[in-house]
Design a protein that fits this description.
mainly beta; 4-stranded antiparallel beta sheet; 14 strands; elongated
Length: 141
Amino acid sequence: AGTLLELIVDPGVEALLPDGGTLGRTPLTAPMPPGRHVLSLRNPALGVNTARVVNVNPTGQTTVRIYLNKGFVNIRAPEAATVLVDGRNMGYAPLDELDLYEGHHRLVVIVDGARWAKSFTLAANQRVTFTVDFEDEGESE
């Protein structure tokens, strides 16, 4: 009998293995070799894209509970600029206290056909302000 990982994540996510394979949607119980594993946790609909280390015990079943928290983003950009986060339209600038789950995100701001983009990582309970200045192009697409 091998070892099992019971993974409970709030909110529910797709759990992926380092090799790109999928464990499935949480909550889940799956065979997992003992030791340290880095799992990717994703839920595109909720904007979840993060990773967690889990340690599987040498015997039996290991239960891991993960609570994902949100951080807050303020976006200062030209009036009526369209704001997209992770490909989802969030509305028009300026935006205050946009709540996003901790982890990796991509911000795109579009105004009059010009695009400004930035990838960023948000920590739990972190507050970040992005000031979008089209003089400074941000990352090239």
